[in-house]
C-alpha cells in the first residue's frame, strides 16, 4: 500500500499579526481555558485498493461518509479539528490526529487516531471514496455515518450518531445505539437495529429484520425477499407499505395499541390480545410485525 498523492491545507494554527481591539481582549480573557483555541486542517490521501476488496473504516469522533465509485484506488479526505487551551497546544494536537492505514489479511483498515486529553478535544470528519465492489465495514463512536453506491456487503455501526445507507446492492447490517437509522434503495437482506431511535426504510428489495427499543419503524418495499419481513419495537408505531402484488403469510401482534389493515387477507383470524393472522395472495414468506405500545399499519 503506497500513497500516490497527498494534499494538505492548514487553517487556524497561527493568529493574524498585530491582533488588537475586542478580538485581542477576548483572547486574553480566554487564554488558558480548555478548548478556547481552534486549529483545522484538510488532507487528502490516495492509496491502492486491497486485492481482497475488503475495507474497514473506524472513526472515533467525527462524521464519516463512504461513497462507492467507478475507480481503482481509495481516496480519503480528512477534515481535522483540534481545540485546546492555546494556539500552540491546538496546533500540536492537530499534528497528533492521524489517519492510519493498515494492511490486514481481510483488506485495508482506515482508522483515525486521536489523543485523549481532558483539556483538549480533537477529531476528524472523513470522506472516503472506494471502488463500488468493496466489502465495507464502517464504525463510529461519536458521529454520523453515511454509506452509498456500494455493490457488495455493508456493515455500519454508530454508538452516538445517525446511520444512513443508500443505493447498495448487497446484504446490509446497520446499527445505532442512540440515533436514527435510514436506508433507501437497497437490494439484498437488511438487518437494522437501534436502541433509541426510529428506523426508516424506503424502496427496498429483499428481506428485512428491523428492531428498535423506542421509536417508529416505517418500511416501504418494492419487493419482498424470500426470508420475509420482521419488524419489532417496544414503544412505537410500525407502518409497512407493500407492493400491490404480494404473496406472504401475515402475523401481526399489538399488546397495547391498534392494528390497521388496508390489505385483503385470506384465511384471516383475529385473536384476543390484539393479534391478526392471515394470508396475502397465494401465501409465501412470513411478515411478522410486533409492538408492545403503539399501533401497526399494514398498507
Principal-axes shape call: elongated
* Cα gyration radius (Å): 24 Å
The percentage helix is under 10%
Distance between the termini: 51 Å
> Which residues sit in consecutive blocks of at least 5 with pLDDT less than 50?
1-19
If you had to describe this structure to a student in words, what would you say it looks like?
The chain has about 300 residues and is mainly beta. The protein folds into 2 domains: about 1-10 and about 35-140, no CATH class; about 180-299, no CATH class. Helix content is about 5%, strand content about 65%. It is built from 2 helices and 24 strands. It has helices at about 20-30, 85-95; strands at about 5-10, 35-50, 55-60, 65-70, 75-85, 100-105, 105-115, 120-130, 135-140, 145-150, 155-160, 165-170, 170-175, 180-185, 190-195, 200-215, 215-235, 240, 250-255, 260, 265-270, 275-280, 285-295, 295-299. It has a 24-stranded mixed sheet that branches. β21 and β22 form a beta hairpin. About 35% of the residues are buried. Mean pLDDT is about 90; it is low at about 1-20.
Short description:
The chain is mainly beta and 299 residues long.
Amino acid at each position: 500500500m503506497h500513497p500516490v498523492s497527498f494534499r494538505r491545507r492548514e487553517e487556524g494554527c497561527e493568529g493574524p499579526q498585530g491582533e488588537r481591539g475586542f478580538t485581542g481582549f477576548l483572547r486574553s480573557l480566554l487564554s488558558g481555558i480548555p478548548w478556547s483555541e481552534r486549529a483545522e486542517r484538510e488532507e487528502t490521501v490516495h492509496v491502492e485498493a486491497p486485492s481482497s476488496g475488503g475495507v474497514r473504516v473506524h472513526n472515533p469522533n467525527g462524521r464519516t461518509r463512504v461513497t462507492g465509485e467507478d475507480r481503482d484506488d481509495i481516496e480519503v479526505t480528512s477534515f481535522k479539528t483540534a481545540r485546546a487551551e492555546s494556539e500552540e497546544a491546538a496546533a500540536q494536537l492537530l499534528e497528533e490526529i492521524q489517519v492510519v492505514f493498515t494492511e490486514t489479511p481481510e483488506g485495508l483498515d482506515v482508522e483515525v487516531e486521536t489523543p485523549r486529553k481532558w483539556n483538549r478535544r480533537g477529531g476528524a470528519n472523513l470522506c472516503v471514496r472506494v471502488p463500488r465492489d468493496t466489502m465495507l465495514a464502517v464504525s463510529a463512536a461519536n458521529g454520523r455515518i453515511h454509506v452509498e453506491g456500494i455493490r457488495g456487503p455493508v456493515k455500519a455501526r454508530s454508538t452516538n450518531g445517525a446511520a444512513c445507507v443508500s443505493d447498495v446492492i448487497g446484504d446490509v447490517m446497520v446499527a445505532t445505539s442512540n440515533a436514527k437509522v435510514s436506508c433507501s434503495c437497497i437490494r439484498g437482506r437488511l438487518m437494522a437495529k437501534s436502541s433509541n431511535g426510529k428506523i426508516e426504510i424506503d424502496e427496498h428489495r429483499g428481506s428485512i429484520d428491523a428492531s428498535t427499543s423506542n421509536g417508529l419503524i416505517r418500511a416501504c418495499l418494492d419487493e419482498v425477499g424470500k426470508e420475509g419481513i420482521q419488524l419489532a419495537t417496544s414503544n412505537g408505531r410500525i407502518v409497512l407499505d407493500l407492493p400491490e402484488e404480494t404473496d406472504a403469510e401475515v402475523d401481526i401482534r399489538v399488546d397495547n395499541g391498534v392494528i390497521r389493515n388496508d390489505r385483503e387477507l385470506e384465511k384471516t383470524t383475529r385473536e384476543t390480545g390484539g393479534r391478526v393472522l392471515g394470508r396475502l395472495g397465494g401465501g409465501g414468506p412470513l411478515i411478522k410485525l410486533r409492538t408492545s405500545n403503539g399501533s401497526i399499519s399494514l398498507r
